[in-house]
What we know:
With about 200 residues, the protein is of the alpha+beta class. It is about 30% helix and about 25% strand.
Amino acid sequence: MIRKSTWIVLLIFAILLAVVLLWQRMQDQKASEATPTAAEAAERQYLFDIAGEVAGLRIEHVGENSIELVKDENGQWVLAGSSALDIDSASVEAVVGQLSTLPLVSTLQNIPQLQDLGLEPPAYRILVIQKDGTQLVASVGNATPTGSGYYVLAGDRRVYIANEVSLQAILDLVDKPLPTPYPQPVGEIPAGEGAIPEATSAP
């Protein structure tokens, strides 16, 4: 016959086992919500899922300064509130055009605290506005230890590593002077204007 004390020990053991299993299940569920599967990671190759034309871009260097670029009615990139003559639209278009193919290097499988990655608060915030009004956002944190990329928090709330070279070109729009138009070539002086008159003899 099993003694009463033995039943008590078995009951305590069963309760502890149930608690451990419940805690493990909660941790597994939490990890599955925070970590994308291999299939999900493979599907996302670029930082921004841009389906149409980019009509606006805002970059904020948190705590420093920010810049907002928009396309005017002629399709030229301008600083918000200024004229197209202030910047070289073609040069800006070349950089902004990289947004739709800004590559991701990898996905973090085990995500540490966001503040440890420089993402809370972030170093930069990027807002992309498509022509149809759709807005895409991303936060940029610290550079990776190898210097090959930046930690980024995408709009799907997952943490990725974005290619350093491609992303730096975008961030430079707020940190460095924007390219300005080349000076227009000076036209030829019309005949008769600015010519030195020939000397004439006195009457």
